[in-house]
Amino acid sequence: MSETVLATPAAAPARRRDGLRGLLRKPLFVVSALITLLYLAMAAFPGLFTSVDPRACSLAFSGVGPSSGHPFGYDLQGCDYLANIIYGTRSSISIGLLVTVATFVLAAVFGGLAGYFGGLVDGVVSRTADIMFGLPFIVAAIVVLNMFPQRDVLSVSLVLIVLGWPGGMRYMRGSVLKVRNLEYVQAARVLGSGHTRVLLSHVMPNSLTPLIVLKTLEVGAVIAAEAALTFLGVGLQPPAISWGLQLSAAHSQWQAHPHLVIFPSIFLSLAVLAFVVLGDSLRDALDPKER
Amino acid sequence: MLGYVLRRLAAMVPVLIGVTFLIFALVHALPGDPIAAMAGNRPLSPSTVAALRQQYHLDESLWTQYWYYMTGLAHGDLGTDFHGRPVSELIAERWPVTFNLALTAWVMKIVIGIGVGVYGALRRGRLGDHLALGFTVLFIALPGFVFAFIAQLVFGVNLQLFPIAGIADGWPMSFLLPALVIALETAAPLARLTRSSLVEVLRSDFIRTARAKGAAPARVVWGHAMRNSMIPVVTYLGLSLATLLGGAVIVESVFNLPGVGGLMVQAIQTQEGSVVVGVATFIILVYLLVNLVVDLCYGLIDPRVRRV
Hints:
Chain A is mainly alpha-helical. Chain A has helices at residues 2-23, 27-44, 81-117, 119-134, 137-145, 153-180, 183-190, 195-207, 209-232, 243-251, 258-286.
């Protein structure tokens, strides 16, 4: 009996490591991980990928298509489009990561507390989440974003975080409920550990995996949501450089200048695809039951 | 059964109050003066402004305004826009567009999603399964409005099969393309859910028994397995119909369809707070009611639920 109690928490990380090693043999994972790294590098050091200044523009070149030296052509302001798309990576990736990390922390904390303590804490947290869940996401995002006169990466992320935490919270609460009554948790309680210790060193580590998986899958969705909101005119605003803004400007022009729609679309779709596939392979590795 | 319906209706009330209050408070916090937005460029005398503020209860506290709104709502009044037209009338005008789009997209989504899911479950682990799932991932990854552009470009401009935008051609021609965009974009979760649920059921003992008795493969899948794997799928389908009926803001905007979602965006841009709140309330009501209907439908599929 005491052996099982001791073995269970240790076995989970070991299994996790095995799964992660197996990942490196999966071509889909390797390709999506490499593409993701490329995007991260582009977001961190855009200067490495283009030597052209995205803000050096000349109206003489407005809307000119791809040409030598400027493979993606120019946008309507006559700025080099490739440079603009590369510099646009930063806002998309920052919002994607910022929102995912913040909602992960909120979901882990509130879901953990609600699931572990139950009762009043659970009541307050879960009912709040129910109400947030009742809001249609896009509609709520449009209304809230309109409250900000100036919208930058931080304010857009903030809105997506506030609206986005309940999903993960429910997930986390569910897995904490499962773990809470397991024998090793009871054993820890009986041995005299306080709530903080039981929660932090027994319950949380053993119930986080589903949430980690959910959140890796969500990075792509957040990037797509930001682009869609910006496209609707309630996300980022100029002078920010972002794929959503480029697509928004190009929308009315796409019959005359199709390259303005095509190139940011490719960059955006590939980014979302890479993150979704990455999350998918991580899920297969971390959570074999779901396969 | 009646008691269950009443209990569920009662449980909707706090959610409805919470959500409408949240929207109400948010709209209240919107920057800009609604009276100035209403007047446009015309100058208004201070006394007119004061009269208008009083007429729309803008001089009262948030709580009082919310109370007026909820009293109106209880009488079926969703408020009026700045020109005095009832919001319910604005919604009624646009509802057919959203309703047609939502139902068309929903049916397409069911055909695609369940089709791919069942195919994947029956050929589990083989090439066809991987290809079918990969296909759906591709559409998750393609952001909706990007996909809408591509559909417009290929089917509207190049092949000239469908109108690019607007509803001039009526149902079905004007609705097929936007509905297909919504359906493909949201079919992936449905396909995955159907697949995993069916795979689970196909492994169970009663399926083995049915096969051992010599039931035809088609009968085993459609007669025995499908019905038993449908509960999570029906839950998901209900949620998705409820979401679709709330208006597909982005697709409506790209295809220029005058639906409820478009009304919402337009009202936010013109700062007509009363319209925003009215439409949001309507969307939430539809959402809650569709979910209730779905829960009642469980009884049709799963007799065990009926006894509860």
